[in-house]
Amino acid sequence: MLKALPENIEVNDLIQRLDRGPAEHKGNAGKALLVGGDTGMAGALLLAGQSCLYLGAGWTMLQMLDHHSAHANSNHPELMISQASIKSATKLQDLKADVLGIGPGLGQSELAQTYLTSILTLPNAPVVIDADAINLIASSENNLLLLKIRNQRFPHRTILTPHPGEAAKLLKTDVATIQKNRLQAINRLVELTQSIVVLKGQHTLIASPDHSPFVCQAGNPGMATGGMGDILTGCIVAIAAQGIHHHLDLWESSCIAVHLHALAADQLVKKGVGPIGLTPSETMIEMRSIINQQLKQLNASH
Ligand SMILES: NC(=O)C1=CN([C@@H]2O[C@H](COP(=O)(O)OP(=O)(O)OC[C@H]3O[C@@H](n4cnc5c(N)ncnc54)[C@H](OP(=O)(O)O)[C@@H]3O)[C@@H](O)[C@H]2O)[C@@H](O)CC1
Ligand SMILES: Nc1ncnc2c1ncn2[C@@H]1O[C@H](COP(=O)(O)OP(=O)(O)O)[C@@H](O)[C@H]1O
């Protein structure tokens, strides 16, 4: 039988490591960089960025491909948004982000490919690969090779978060085949990519070359709305960025994020916010509430 996520990973114990000491500063919460948001999909990158902000990253920087949207966002002036260009792709090294995420609304342009290559060849920093960045890997043997080389050199520092459509592209099959045997699919995805993998959809699975699959029993069909995956990406990046100083690796950060994301959606449905019309924007705020409530409870019990 599959192990369930909250019990076996002891998510609460992991969340406790995010507790902030009185003298902590933003450097302790980590520098996050997200890349995506091509024309017509700027919202995907903004959602990932806002989620990263609400889940506690010290700095959230966005490299936006759509030049019309690459400017300060008055609803969220905290986000440091700049225009993506071939020049900045090569400058990623200088930015020294603690954790990077690529994919939300990225598209599959030449510039998107340039960023993916730059990020896959960056040393050390944990990387979250989502959406079109996964599609780019699925459609290029060279990208898959770069991913495998990265995993050989820096194991446990890359995660892919495919939904069943993206998983089908990676495995050169169809969505029905993925859904018929999700366990087999995630095992094949881990074997193919040598990465941590989150296979999204009802009963999200998470596995890695060192961890057999766990299932997330939380979550509901209210989550079937555009942008819901983008906020998961932002959340993983935020928690992994804090994890650098708070001793959480990418696997642990991803388990927390998957659990929080689904739990938040379930809590909102219980309150009558959804399933119909549940939004990613509401879900990320609920995720923030849950994490802070849990920290408060854990502190009170010690
Ligand atoms: N506000 C914005 O700017 C937004 C921008 N966005 C950005 O748009 C880009 C393209 O993303 P997208 O959503 O348009 O289509 P995409 O993900 O390629 O394929 C969808 C197909 O995959 C499948 N499938 C998916 N889930 C499944 C499941 N659980 N269970 C079963 N099947 C499932 C399903 O295939 P079907 O079954 O229909 O054959 C479905 O039709 C991407 O970069 C993203 O970040 C979005 O984030 C939205 C908000
Ligand atoms: N029926 C469902 N039950 C549980 N979770 C769901 C369901 N439908 C969607 N989700 C979750 O919502 C998110 C959707 O992500 P994704 O398809 O990548 O959306 P987008 O690309 O629009 O951001 C995933 O985390 C997925 O697990």
Automatic annotation (TrEMBL):
One MF annotation (Gene Ontology) recorded for this entry: ATP binding
Keyword Zinc: no
Residues annotated to bind AMP: 200-204, 229
InterPro entries, A to Z: CARKD (IPR000631), Ribokinase-like (IPR029056)
Reactions that this protein is recorded to catalyse: (6S)-NADHX + ADP = AMP + phosphate + NADH + H(+); (6S)-NADPHX + ADP = AMP + phosphate + NADPH + H(+)
Enzyme nomenclature, EC number: 4.2.1.136
Keyword set includes Disulfide bond: no
SUPFAM superfamilies recorded: Ribokinase-like (SSF53613)
Record-annotated YjeF C-terminal domain positions: 9-294
Enzyme class, first EC level, given as a word: lyase
Swiss-Prot/TrEMBL keywords: ATP-binding, Kinase, Lyase, NAD, NADP, Nucleotide-binding, Transferase
Residues engaged in binding (6S)-NADPHX: 44, 105, 163, 230
Subunit structure: Homotetramer.
Family: Belongs to the NnrD/CARKD family.
Protein role: Catalyzes the dehydration of the S-form of NAD(P)HX at the expense of ADP, which is converted to AMP. Together with NAD(P)HX epimerase, which catalyzes the epimerization of the S- and R-forms, the enzyme allows the repair of both epimers of NAD(P)HX, a damaged form of NAD(P)H that is a result of enzymatic or heat-dependent hydration.
Protein name as catalogued: ADP-dependent (S)-NAD(P)H-hydrate dehydratase
Native organism: Polynucleobacter kasalickyi
